UniProtKB/TrEMBL annotation:
Residues 1-99 form the Flavodoxin domain. GO terms for molecular function: FMN binding; menaquinone-dependent protoporphyrinogen oxidase activity. GO terms for biological process: heme biosynthetic process. This is Protoporphyrinogen oxidase. Pfam families: Flavodoxin_5.
Amino acid sequence: MVGGSIHVGKHQDDLREFVSEHHEALAEMPTAFFQVSLSSATEENREAAAGYVETFISDTGWHPDRIAQFGGALRFSEYGFLKRLMMKRIAKDLLEEETSTSSDVEFTDWNAVDAFAADVASFVEGRLGVPPDEAEPAGR
Ligand SMILES: Cc1cc2nc3c(=O)[nH]c(=O)nc-3n(C[C@H](O)[C@H](O)[C@H](O)COP(=O)(O)O)c2cc1C
C-alpha cells in the first residue's frame, strides 16, 4: 500500500520517484494506492482529486489494484506563518469559505478509511491465497 498527500497540486516527489522506479516490481504484487487531499473533502473538487490520481498513474506507469481518495486535514497548529497563510488561501479557493486558522480541521471520513483497509486486506489475502481461517478478522 502506497499513499501520499497533495501539496500545491502535486504528490510528494519522493513518492512519485519511488513508484516510478519500482513500478515493474509493484506490478507483480497486489497493490493499493491512497491519496489525501483537501479536494476530496468537497463534492465540487472531486474531479480535481481524481485528476491528481490520473496524473500520478500516467507519470509513474503504475496501475494499483485498489485506489482510494480521502479528505485530509488542515493542521494550522503545526504550520509556520507562511504555510498557514498559503493554506488559508488554498482552503478558501477549495472550500469557497473563510477558514479560521485558530483551530485544526479534519475532513477525513475514517469509516471510508476502515472500509478501504478491509477491502484491500481481503483482496490481498485472496490474491495470496490466504485461507479464511488464517486471515486476520477485519478491523484488527
Ligand atoms: C502546503 C499545503 C498545500 C496544499 N495544497 C493542496 C492542493 O493544492 N490541493 C488540495 O486538494 N489539497 C491541498 N492541501 C491539503 C492537503 O492535501 C491536506 O491538508 C492533507 O491532509 C495534508 O497531509 P500532510 O500534511 O500529511 O501532507 C495542501 C496542504 C498543505 C499543507
